[in-house]
Design goal:
The chain starts with 5 loop residues before the first helix and ends with a helix. The chain is mainly alpha-helical. It is about 55% helix and about 5% strand. The chain has six helices and two strands. Strands 1-2 form a two-stranded antiparallel sheet. Helix 1 packs across helix 3 and helix 4 packs across helix 5.
Length: about 170
């Protein structure tokens, strides 16, 4: 019962092409597995990349590449249609989670090798840690600054790559 117009198909195709092209251009990504604009569930399209072998950790360059690829759909929409759709919400969420983990869990920022992740204890132990702070407001601000720095750098790098390879995006 889902009506998928030609405009929807075109926007979805460019969105997925943005993810796909960045995935192919960046050296630290997993190989592309499949791309489709056939709607499935609540998604209008999807691009998958899969590792060639089991991975137990990722390096900083791989995580940065994942964030850049997350922005591919958004960047392609803006470049080709001068607009942004709500279809980018999951991509933005993923990019933000990766960047926050880089800063708070893995020490991959200028804050250095420090664990700043919220540790949620099991709620049945009688402790509600949701409102407990583990660090100061100043540290929280510095975390936000570092996360934003990663996100903005990745966004700019992705935008530059797509601009340099616009003909491939259109193809």
């Amino acid at each position: 019962s889902f009506i998928f117009t030609e405009k929807d198909k075109q926007m979805t195709a460019y969105h997925e092409a943005g993810h796909t092209l960045l995935n192919v251009l960046l050296p630290d990504t997993d190989p592309l597995h499949k791309v489709t604009i056939v709607p499935r569930g609540r998604t209008l399209g999807v691009s998958w990349s899969m590792p060639e072998r089991d991975k137990y950790s990722q390096n900083k360059e791989e995580m940065i590449a994942r964030v850049i690829v997350c922005y591919g759909g958004l960047l392609a929409e803006k470049m080709m249609f001068n607009t942004q759709t709500t279809g980018v919400s999951n991509d933005i969420e993923k990019a933000t989670k990766i960047a926050r983990a880089m800063v708070c869990r893995y020490g991959m920022s200028d804050l250095g090798p420090v664990d700043l992740d919220y540790h949620q204890e099991h709620p049945y132990l009688g402790r509600d840690l949701q409102n407990m702070k583990e660090f100061s407001e100043d540290t929280a601000q510095r975390i936000d600054t570092e996360v934003n720095k990663i996100l903005q750098t990745c966004y700019q790098n992705g935008e530059n790559l797509l601009k340099e390879n616009r003909s491939q995006l259109e193809l």
